[in-house]
Amino acid sequence: MPKDILSLMGKNVCVKRHPTFSSKNETPTSILGKAGATLLKELEGWDIGLECISDMPSKIQNDQKSVKIAGFDLDGTLILTKSGSTFAKHEKDWKWFDTNTVGKLQELVSQDYLIVVFSNQGGFPVNSTSKRFLQFVTKWNEIRRQLEALDSNFQERLFMIAAPKVKSEEPPKFRKPEVGMWNYVLERVQVPCSSPQDAKNIDLSSSFFVGDAAGRKTDFSDSDKAFAETVGIQFQTPEAFFRK
Question: In what order do the strands lie in the sheet with 234-236?
Fold first, then answer.
């Protein structure tokens, strides 16, 4: 199996728009093997960039005059590992952060929030078919499937943006606390703007971000809190949001 499936698709590609295999005889399984075919299936609909990956469409349909965004970190915020390890051991090694996490998300959907998960990921390079890359995409797709099975409105109201570590001499633009992932969302709900505060179609007063990197003594970082402050929206820890 080739080491880099994504190189067959191009460096910056939306899998839905650019099908890799056109010949009836050139199936993903025959060319890439079972693991490669699984990855291609899981990546259907994802926008694969050099610095971030996302399942968000190029344009968000919205009936409201302004968009309310409920932002969340993923690991340690929406979900925890079942194993108790800091990092997931496989794609099924996850559980909801709290027993009422799903209920809280359903409330947000009913209140017309756009739920966006902004996640820094350090376990895989974006242009690799490593097991960790496949595990991450498969895990998130399963989270989506579970929520959509409960409420079909999640299909149009729940999206993921992840920023893996990138080897570059330039400072990272997408990894929190930088606001590249936030601007990625803005480009899809309105015209691009020069700064997060220029987002006229975003209801910043009602929008918020929940994350576990809050700069507390036991936290590894304050990147989530700093991200929310730079964007100009409210910040909460997962304990305060889900368990209050």
Answer: 13-14, 47-48, 53-54, 158-164, 113-121, 68-72, 208-210, 234-236
Q: Is residue 53 part of a domain?
A: no
For residue 107 the two structure tokens come to 């409330």
In a domain, 54, yes or no: no
Instruction: Give domain status of residue 27, yes or no.
Output: yes
pTM of the model as a whole:
0.83
H helices then E strands: how many in the chain? Answer: 7, 10
Residue 128, domain extent: 59-243
Residue from 148, 155, 160, 189 nearest 64 by CA: 189
Tens-place pLDDT, residues 94-104: 999 999 999 99
Confidence of residue 13 (pLDDT cuts 50, 70, 90): very low
